[in-house]
Amino acid sequence: MTLVVSLNCKDGLVMGSDGQATVGSSGGPIRQPIQKISPIGKKILVSGSGHVGIIQRYLDGINKFNRDLLQDRLTPELREKIRRTVFDIMQNEANRHIAFHKPLKDAGFPHASIPPFSELLFACLENNGDKKIWRIGADGSDEFLEEVGYGCIGSGDIFAYTLLRNYEVKELDTEKGELIVYRVIKEAIKVGAYGLGEPIDVWRITKDGIDRLSDDEIMALDNTYGAWIKMEQELFKEIYKKKEEK
């Protein structure tokens, strides 16, 4: 399970993710720490959610267009090539899965599973200053989300979308966006029953390029997050104290 969040801020883009992957073993699923966000060129970030092996194949397929991606532009032609590559890999995985499980299903095994799936999220600051948040869904569909102000993928995306509706993301700079991304992922990890975990990973793209927040910067975000929560709690108490005084 995964949560990846990208914000369209006024001076750039922010992308963050949780840091846990669930992988198979003979004894059952196990947790593994993993870096889920990858830089491409100087101003593109990409991340995936879903089956780890399929995401790896997606990224291998996308690497065929590395020369084009190094131009830091998601042109319509390049997007269609990437989308088609992802769709073909997805279809091959589904066909392979069905071929394996159909005999089990026909034999009456009720636990024969549905095909695994994965989706991708891109954040790109183009050379002309345009910002793009591009999602390719598990069904091969795609959409741009920068006008909304944010995009999310993964098992915690509904929770993240609910929290993000409270913020005018596009009016904030990336420094404030980093704190919001951290809070959304931190709280999703607290609430999520399965599959989300630390460490939280946060990246930003500005006119100066891509930066990954250091351990010290993540620790500073955690301290600010803690103070933010405490202030909210105190404000809540104050609101009800005034109501009671009336």
> How many distinct folded domains?
1
Largest sheet: 5 strands, antiparallel
CATH homology superfamily: Aminohydrolase, N-terminal nucleophile (Ntn) domain
Number of helices: 6
By CATH, the topology is Glutamine Phosphoribosylpyrophosphate, subunit 1, domain 1
Q: What is the CA-based Rg, rounded?
A: 20 Å
What is the structural class? Answer: alpha+beta
**What gross morphology would you assign?**
globular
Per CATH, the class reads: Alpha Beta
Give the strand content. Answer: 25-35%
Q: What's the total count of β strands?
A: 12
Helical content band: 40-55%
Task: For the record, give the distance between the C-alpha atoms at the N and C termini, rounded to a whole number.
Answer: 48 Å
What order do the strands of the largest sheet run in, or round the barrel if closed?
Answer: 10-1-2-11-12
The assigned CATH architecture is 4-Layer Sandwich
Describe the structure.
The protein is globular. The protein has a 5-stranded antiparallel beta sheet with strand order 10-1-2-11-12, covered by helices on one side. The longest helix has 31 residues. The protein starts with a strand and ends with a helix. A hairpin with a 2-residue loop joins strand 11 and strand 12. The protein has a single domain, classed as Glutamine Phosphoribosylpyrophosphate, subunit 1, domain 1 (4-Layer Sandwich), CATH 3.60.20. With 246 residues, the chain is an alpha+beta fold. 42% of the residues lie in helices and 26% in strands.
